[in-house]
């Protein structure tokens, strides 16, 4: 029984997955590990599953610390969309294939220049154990923005993980299934653009339904927009946000942290946004209370906020530039976390009070926004920091900044950071680095580093997003409803880092190997095939490469090793595989043959198990076989083939012309061709190899790819214009375009845009010809019409005049005006200005006529009225006269006058001048009347006074 090792007192029993037939709770003491075995020795196993299973047990695997980093493997491209081989984002590590081995998911773009090259990306998945391709979504309709980050997890609770990222146009979210097929895309919305940032996953309100976070936006697991925060998309300057969730205040509901802005689970403000710029964020515990503090970096500064959004301190980025995403960890092992921060010219570590602990020169001129991670490689309590700038990958001592490892690297850089995870299921950490050679010569693709002796500490087999924290996802890809507040445990008080010795929500579940039914059979070539069935009766998966040793006699008593078989597939819990060892020639004789699982032939094993004592089985075997007849080699027959190029200007074909195996032995006959294609235009030599498992034969044929596909040519729509000239007019139109599967196809037209077209309809024909002489054509009409537009004519307003003459009057008026699109349009009227108009209303009509005979008209009235103006009359103001004593009155004279526009206006008065006016005041009224009967009056008084001085 193996002793379970747990450096942090975190050994716990686990019940495993629901698909297992039977799995008991772990019966083990805290910190010691172990399990009890219930499988009967020698029990037969059939198919792909063994039953019953043993009770689950867990433990920390053996660990011998060492630090000799070296490249383990590199992915540099694929036959699927081979031109998409550049990586400039943070990869995720998660099992998408379901084989128990972690996979690496990332987006790729084409090499080239300019920012546009990383907008259109192909999402890919490769296996973590050797980098082999798993899938790639090459559909142009489902491109992803290649420089943005992605997130992965089970968003719909179907037991399979999904991957979500930013679409190629930067608007909203696009999600994929675990096999890379398209799942959904959100509807674009206003102000939702994200350039280099990316989404995160969380169950904000703990209801078991996952939300997708993108800056200040939260979507449901089906892509419905749930709410938009009030403080904008935020994130790094001009390149977008990476928001995430954390339960800052411990109320069971997670907050959304988007740089300086913090929102509650329902989108309301958690606290007023801090008076600092937007940027990247991270959470950790920097004081004694249980609530998290928030680090925000960007726009050349880094700040620490408390849980109420109050700024505790702000410092400039020591390395200059914008400042990348912060990395939190206790780098100097003083019990308080520090902040790791990339800049333009240096990587820096700031103490919890914002003071500089150390900095080291780097080169990050392109973005100044990259990220980093940290890990305790040797599990000695001393963290290392891992950072890749434009040209170097470095591992620093976290406390001092001393460079422990440095190697060449290349990247134009966006927001990416290295990732630490156990990517090949070997219980030792690996380092995953994204590379591209768009700006600097070097590497492109994914590079995975490990320790030369696999001496790096074991850690989780998952890293699911840029804003990764140690408890935001379970080991099987589920998003927890109420994740552990990691900052409350000192060894988990980190952000953007995995932790040495911490295996997530479940410690290491151990396998338990048993062997059954050792058998032998003879092959057709006379070889002896020794076989045994190996079953995994435990809860943990056995990785690919399990060794099974065969011995003649008991190895514990000095038996002779016959050889070692290696399983090419992983062995999940409850499954079984057959291990076969060929012996040629067969040794002969009858012996007891032992088969021992997890044995390298020298008595040493690789895998830690619940019980190491039941790994062997034995049987008495006859080791003799008769030889088979001599093999007839296969026959390879080739032919030359000509095929038409497809839509991508490539062709595929087989040159096989009836290759065969005359005796159909010893192994299944197979034919392979190299290169496989597809092939470009021209002739290509292909070698065919036929094999029967023992012998082979070759021949050579030629695959010729010819272009027979016509270009696709598109003409503009028909156009119609008017012309003032009878000779026609110049007409411009959009250029005809052409697309071809094999490159350019220049277009020529019978008439050039801008040429003069005559009046009438002129057909225009356009044709395109590709490099292989294939042509296609299209056409459209240009119609030129004469002038059909009426002129515009404007008349003066109606006019009214008076006349004294009963026959009317001469009337003048403003002449009407006209305009026309093709020149002058003279105006003529029914009555000329200055002509005589009779008393009454006379309509006047005017018409304009252009050179093409188009007419337009308008009208107005001239009204002549008779005399209606009264005359003007003038009377004296008053008249006085005197009489002597004895007189009763006196004759008084006075004068009046009147004028009129149309002649005399006689005046008559109520008392005529010269009449006798009596003593006192006599009122007088005078009236003037003209020839038309118009009257005007005036009034005055005549006063006669007594004057005693008169006789």
TrEMBL record:
Superkingdom to which the source organism belongs: Bacteria
Domain HYR: 706-785, 786-866, 868-946
Keywords: Repeat, Signal
Signal peptide (UniProt feature, chain positions): none
InterPro entries, alphabetized: FG-GAP, HYR_dom, Ig-like_fold, Integrin_alpha_N
Protein name, per record: Repeat domain-containing protein
A Pfam match: FG-GAP_3
Record's keyword annotation contains Transmembrane: no
């Amino acid at each position: 029984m193996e002793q379970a090792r747990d450096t942090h007192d975190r050994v716990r029993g686990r019940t495993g997955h629901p698909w297992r037939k039977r799995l008991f709770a772990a019966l083990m003491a805290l910190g010691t590990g172990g399990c009890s075995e219930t499988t009967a020795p020698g029990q037969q196993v059939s198919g792909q599953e063994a039953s019953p299973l043993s009770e689950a047990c867990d433990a920390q695997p053996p660990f011998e610390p060492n630090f000799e980093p070296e490249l383990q493997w590199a992915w540099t491209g694929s036959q699927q969309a081979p031109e998409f081989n550049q990586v400039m984002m943070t990869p995720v590590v998660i099992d998408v294939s379901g084989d128990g081995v972690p996979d690496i998911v990332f987006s790729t773009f084409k090499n080239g220049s300019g920012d546009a090259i990383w907008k259109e990306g192909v999402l890919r998945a490769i296996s973590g154990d050797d980098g082999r391709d798993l899938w790639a979504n090459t559909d142009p309709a489902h491109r992803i923005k290649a420089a943005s980050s992605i997130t992965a997890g089970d968003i719909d609770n179907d037991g399979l993980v999904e991957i979500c990222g930013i679409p190629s146009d930067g608007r909203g979210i696009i999600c994929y299934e675990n096999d890379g097929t398209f799942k959904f895309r959100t509807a674009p919305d206003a102000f939702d653009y994200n350039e280099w940032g990316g989404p995160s996953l969380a169950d904000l309100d703990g209801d078991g339904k996952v939300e997708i976070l993108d800056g200040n936006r939260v979507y449901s697991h089906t892509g419905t927009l749930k709410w938009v925060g009030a403080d904008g998309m935020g994130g790094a300057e001009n390149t977008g946000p990476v928001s995430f969730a954390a339960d800052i205040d411990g109320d069971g509901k997670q907050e959304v942290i988007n740089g300086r802005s913090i929102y509650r689970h329902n989108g309301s403000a958690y606290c007023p946004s801090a008076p600092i710029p937007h940027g990247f964020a991270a959470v950790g515990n920097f004081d004694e209370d249980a609530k998290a503090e928030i680090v925000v970096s960007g726009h050349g500064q880094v700040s620490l906020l408390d849980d109420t959004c109050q700024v505790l301190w702000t410092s400039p980025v020591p390395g200059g530039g914008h400042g990348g995403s912060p990395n939190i960890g206790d780098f100097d092992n003083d019990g308080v976390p520090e902040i790791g921060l990339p800049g333009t010219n240096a990587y820096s570590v700031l103490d919890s009070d914002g003071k500089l602990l150390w900095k080291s020169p780097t080169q990050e001129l392109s973005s100044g926004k990259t990220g980093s991670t940290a890990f305790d490689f040797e599990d000695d309590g001393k963290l290392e920091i891992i950072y890749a700038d434009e040209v170097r990958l470095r591992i620093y001592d976290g406390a001092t900044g001393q460079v422990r490892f440095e190697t060449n690297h290349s990247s134009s850089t966006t927001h990416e950071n290295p990732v630490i995870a156990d990517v090949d299921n070997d219980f030792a950490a690996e380092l995953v680095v994204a590379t591209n050679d768009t700006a600097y010569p070097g590497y492109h693709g994914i590079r995975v580093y490990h320790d030369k002796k696999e001496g790096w500490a074991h850690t989780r087999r998952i890293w699911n997003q840029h804003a990764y924290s140690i408890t935001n996802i379970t080991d099987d890809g589920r998003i927890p409803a109420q994740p552990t507040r990691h900052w409350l445990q000192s060894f988990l008080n980190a952000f953007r880092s995995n932790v040495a010795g911490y295996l997530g929500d479940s410690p290491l579940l151990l396998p338990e190997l048993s062997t059954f039914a050792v058998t032998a059979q003879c092959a057709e070539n006379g070889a002896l095939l020794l076989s045994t069935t190996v079953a995994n009766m435990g809860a943990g998966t056995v990785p690919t490469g399990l060794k099974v040793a065969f011995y003649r006699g008991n190895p514990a008593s000095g038996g002779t090793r016959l050889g070692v078989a290696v399983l090419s597939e992983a062995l999940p819990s409850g499954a079984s595989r057959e291990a076969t060892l060929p012996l040629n020639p067969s040794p002969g004789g009858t012996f007891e043959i032992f088969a021992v699982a997890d044995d390298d032939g020298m008595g040493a094993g690789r895998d830690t198990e619940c019980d190491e004592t039941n790994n062997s089985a034995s049987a008495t075997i006859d080791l003799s076989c008769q030889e088979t007849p001599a093999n007839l080699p296969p026959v390879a027959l080739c032919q030359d083939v000509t095929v038409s190029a497809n839509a991508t200007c490539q062709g595929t074909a087989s040159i096989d012309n009836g290759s065969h195996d005359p005796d159909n032995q010893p192994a299944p006959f197979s034919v392979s061709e190299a290169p496989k294609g597809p092939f470009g235009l021209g002739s290509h030599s292909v070698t065919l190899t036929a094999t029967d498992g023992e012998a082979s034969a070759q021949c050579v044929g030629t695959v010729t790819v010819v272009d027979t596909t016509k270009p696709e040519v598109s003409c503009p729509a028909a156009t119609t214009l008017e012309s003032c000239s009878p000779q026609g007019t110049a007409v411009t139109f959009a250029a005809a375009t052409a697309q071809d599967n094999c490159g350019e196809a220049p277009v020529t037209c019978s008439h050039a845009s801008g040429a003069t077209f005559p009046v009438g309809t002129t057909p225009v024909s356009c044709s395109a010809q590709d490099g292989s002489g294939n042509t296609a054509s299209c056409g459209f009409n240009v119609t030129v019409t004469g002038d059909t537009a009426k002129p515009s004519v404007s008349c003066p307003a109606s006019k009214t005049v008076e006349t004294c003459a009963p026959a009317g009057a001469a009337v003048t008026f403003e002449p009407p005006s006209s305009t026309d699109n093709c020149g002058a349009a003279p105006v003529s009227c029914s009555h000329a200005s200055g002509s005589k108009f009779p008393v009454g209303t006379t309509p006047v009509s005017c018409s304009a006529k252009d050179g093409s005979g188009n007419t337009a008209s308008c009208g107005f009235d001239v009204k002549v009225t008779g005399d209606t103006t009264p005359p003007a009359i003038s009377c004296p103001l008053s008249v006085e006269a005197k009489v002597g004593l004895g007189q009763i009155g006196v004759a008084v004279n006075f004068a009046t006058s009147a004028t009129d526009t149309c002649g005399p206006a006689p005046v008559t008065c109520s008392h005529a001048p010269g009449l006798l006016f009596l003593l006192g005041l006599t009122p007088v009224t005078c009236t003037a009347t003209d020839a038309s009967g118009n009257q005007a009056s005036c009034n005055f008084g005549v006063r006669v006074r007594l004057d005693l001085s008169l006789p």
